[in-house]
Specification:
Number of helices: 8
CATH class of the largest domain: Alpha Beta
Mean pLDDT: 92
Strand content: 15-25%
Helix content: 25-40%
CATH topology of the largest domain: Spore Coat Polysaccharide Biosynthesis Protein SpsA, Chain A
Radius of gyration: 18 Å
Number of strands: 9
Structural class: alpha/beta
Distance between the termini: 48 Å
Largest sheet: 9 strands, mixed
């Protein structure tokens, strides 16, 4: 195995027997290995837990830690549960149906170490078809500081792109199952912390964010989640009333556009 760096990887797992081994393999292929991988079974009723145990035995002893939840409580709760047991100063999130570029940890950890004022760092990603592994040339590039308005208008990070400092105070909202990641990024940024985005594409996702099977297809639920995020910020005094109204209108217009795109996609498939 390669050089180990002080990063904990947290991965929620729910009915993911088809993709979990690929996700874990992409972690094991890192040029800089995270010190630990925490797999959180979110109450799966299939063979997910057995596969998790098999993977834990396949890699060096103690590298993969298992957190077993008896009930399905959602990705936010699962990520928080992994966060609680994480021992390293940096935490990186990976979903069980996604994968990382081999240089993801090396590049992102080096940036976080060199910039102690950064609380959260994300990066670019690519959409790949099933069966294709992340393997392309990557050159470390400048980071872009994310402003409050940039993050309010759109979620600038897919969850598998995020690395943050373990001591960050906000956590994922366990009452929310859609756009809960965006809510956490907003809460971290509005707490006064610095948030940045690396331009390098260091993650691979295998489904588009809207208009396919899975959580991302539930457009209305995602819209409700985004509106709830704005409402939470307004109630806490982070944004003013007129800003809340403007963001709400903008969000609804985006929602209508997505519905139109999805409708066109369904007609094209027919």
């Amino acid at each position: 195995m390669n050089t180990t760096v002080p990063v904990s990887v947290v991965m929620p797992c729910y009915r993911c027997t088809r993709t979990l081994a690929r996700a874990v393999a992409s972690i094991a292929a890192q040029t800089s290995l995270p010190a630990e991988v925490i797999l959180v079974d979110d109450g799966s009723a299939d063979g997910t837990r057995a596969l998790m145990q098999e993977l834990a035995g396949r890699y060096p002893h103690g590298w993969i830690k298992l957190v077993l939840q008896d009930q399905n409580t959602g990705a936010a709760s699962a990520r928080n549960a992994g966060w609680v047991v994480a021992c390293q100063p940096y935490i990186a999130f990976l979903d069980s149906d996604d994968a990382w570029h081999p240089k993801k940890i090396e590049i992102q950890h080096a940036y976080m170490q060199a910039n102690p004022d950064v609380a959260l760092c994300g990066h670019g990603h690519r959409l790949l078809t099933q069966g294709v592994l992340p393997d392309w040339n990557v050159v470390p590039d400048d980071a872009q500081t994310i402003t409050k308005w940039a993050l309010l208008l759109s979620n600038r990070f897919v969850t598998p792109s995020v690395m943050l400092r373990r001591e960050v105070t906000p956590r994922f909202n366990v009452q929310q199952r859609h756009m809960e990641d965006h809510r956490l990024w907003l809460e971290i940024l509005f707490s006064g912390a610095r948030v940045v985005r690396l331009r390098a594409e260091l993650a691979a996702i295998y489904k588009v964010q809207f208009g396919v099977q899975g959580l991302s297809a539930q457009l209305w639920l995602m819209e409700r989640g985004e509106l709830a995020n704005y409402r939470s910020l307004y109630r806490r005094g982070c944004i003013k009333g007129y800003q809340f109204a403007g963001l709400t209108l903008y969000s609804v217009l985006k929602f209508v556009r997505r519905l139109l795109i999805y409708g066109s996609y369904l007609r094209w498939k027919k």
